[in-house]
Amino acid sequence: MKKVEVITPILNANDLVAQENQNLLKTHGILPVNLMASPGAGKTSLVLQTIKALQGRARLGVVEGDIASSIDSDKVAATHTPVVQINTGGECHLDALTVQKALKALPLSSLDILLIENVGNLICPVEFRLGEKIRVAIASVAEGDDKPYKYPGIFTSVHAVVLNKIDLLPYVDFDLEAMRQAIKRLNPGAKIFELSCRTGEGVTAWAAWLESQWKVQEK
Ligand code: MG
Q1: C-alpha of residue 23 to centroid of ligand 1, in Å
Q2: Is the entire prediction scored with pTM above 0.85?
Q3: Dist CA 30 CA 110 (whole Å)
Q4: Are strands 134-140 and 191-194 parallel, antiparallel or unpaired?
Q5: What CATH code is carried by the domain that includes residue 145?
Q6: What distance in angstroms lies between residue 71's CA and the mean position of ligand 1's atoms?
C-alpha cells in the first residue's frame, strides 16, 4: 500500500516534465523518438544508419543515454550531427528532467527529428516518459524470439518494433514468424521493421516511416 503512495507522485512529477519537453519540441516542429532496447541490440547502430538514410531529408539531433562513457556520442559526433551525451551514473533509464537539461544544449531551431537513445534495458525505461512522440523497441535476431512475451511492458507500449541483425538469420535459431506473431498478439497496431544495420538492408523502409511521422506532426 505504502509503495503505491510513494511511486505515484514520482511518476507524476516525471510525466509533468515530459509534457514540458514534448511541448517545447512541438513548438520547434521536432519529432522526438525514444529508442529502447537491451544492451547490444543495435540502438547506436540504428541511430547511425538513420542519420545516413535521412541525410538531406530531415535534420537530426541525438541524445545518447548511457550509464557511463561517451563512446556512442563520439560515433554520432563524427557524422557532424548535434549530439548530447547523458551519463546516468548507474541509473538504468533516462528520465524527463535529464532529457530537459540535454535539450538546452541542442540547437532546437535547426532540428527536425530528435533520436533519444535510452539506456540499454528492457524494463526501467518503459515507466519514464521523456517527452517523446514515438516510442520504439529494438530487438535483434541474436536474442530470443520469445522476448515480447518475457518483456510485455515494452512491447505493448511502443509504436514500432525494429528487428535488427536479420543478416544473421541463417546462423541463429531465431523463429522470425514466431516473433512477428508475438508482437502482433501483444500490440496489433505496432509497426514492425526487419532490418540489418550492418548491411543496410531494410533501413530505407524504417527511415521513410520515421520521416513520414515527422511530416504528419508538422501539419
Ligand atoms: Mg548505444
Answers
A1: 27
A2: yes
A3: 9
A4: unpaired
A5: 3.40.50.300
A6: 8
